[in-house]
Amino acid sequence: MANTDSSTKIFWQAHRGGGAYEAPDNTMAANRYAWSLGGIPEADIRTTLDGVIVCLHDDTPARTTTAPDDVKDRSISTFTFEEIRTWDAGVKFDEKFKGERIPSLEEAFAEMRGKPERMMYLDLKKVDLDQLGRMIDQYGVNRQVIFTHNVQANCIRMKDIAEGVRTMLWIMGDVEKIKRIFTEARDSGFQGLDQVQLHFRMKNTEDAWPFEIDREFLAFALSETKNAGIDLEIFLYSSEPKTVHLLLDQGVRWFATDEPGKFMQSVRSWSPAVR
After folding, report:
1. Of the candidates 168, 125, 127, 126, which has an alpha carbon nearest to the alpha carbon of residue 145?
2. This prediction's pTM
3. Nearest 5°: phi and psi at 37?
């Protein structure tokens, strides 16, 4: 969360913990980095062969870890947790992160327990929802978790499984697909949802309105979510000041970014009083 000079509250998700540019994907280092900046890290959750829920975006360890060449393209579900902990999950990003490992979700929850200011988005990849719910209850982090998926039915089910958990439906694709799925969610009364996220791809950064989704639809989505008492989150494909300021001026207050540090700099340079 950030406060501008006018005390406007701005909330943001660090996609993969900031793993694209600023911290190694889905690691505890990334989570701590996002928390330190006042944001909410996002973790992608999968399950190992022996049933441990871990944080990893890709199905395989090839991109982010030092898994050997002869196994790196296998699904993470074919390895035990002990096996995957032998790989480094930080050094390929930057030498200063050497020693990071693929974390279990329990590690993250252990650092959240008793610290209500530490929240986390959990993006469902391949996990048994009942098992996830039991773990959330065990650690008592129900009100710190925002469960997220691109299938609304899974969000509805998760709220039934773990009391107090918030949910977010993320919507990406071409403009017509985004509009269609958003409208379907609206027509359902946003059932089982606390947030909806729209991916805002760029068309031309030099245009006065540089986003593929038109200004009128953004206004419509903001109005509909506000009327329903839920949040609209915009996934940024650029954290440049011009981009961030433009959306802040439209009334957006929830964001997702791959560049937490850069995003925060853009937020701090926004001056709503003169706009």
Report:
1. 168
2. 0.94
3. -90, -5
pLDDT for 7 equals: 45
Q: Judge whether 17 and 33 are in contact, CB under 8 Å.
A: yes
Report how far residue 246's alpha carbon sits from residue 234's, in angstroms, rounded to the nearest whole number.
12
Task: Decide: 85 and 131 in contact? Cβ < 8 Å.
Answer: no
Q: Is the pLDDT of residue 145 over 50?
A: yes
The three-state secondary structure class of 195 is strand
Reply yes or no on whether the pLDDT at 163 is more than 60.
yes
- Supply the CATH number for residue 70's domain: 3.20.20.190
Torsion over CA: 110, 116, 122, 126 (sign): positive
Helix (H) or strand (E) holding 153: helix 152-161
DSSP 8-state symbol, 166: E
Domain count, the chain: 1
Active site (annotated) includes residue 245? no
Mean pLDDT over 244-262 rounds to: 97
Angstrom distances, CA of residue 204 to CA of 43, 63, 179, 250, 265: 30, 29, 20, 18, 22
How far is it, in rounded angstroms, from Cα 129 to Cα 44?
14
Q: Dihedral angle at the C-alpha atoms of 129, 134, 140, 144, nearest 10 degrees?
A: 0
pLDDT of residue 205 exceeding 90, the answer is: no
Q: Which of 57, 149, 199, 245 is catalytic?
A: 57
- Per the residue annotation, which of 15, 149, 199, 245 is the catalytic one? 15
Catalytic annotation present for 15: yes
- The whole domain housing 94 covers 2-274
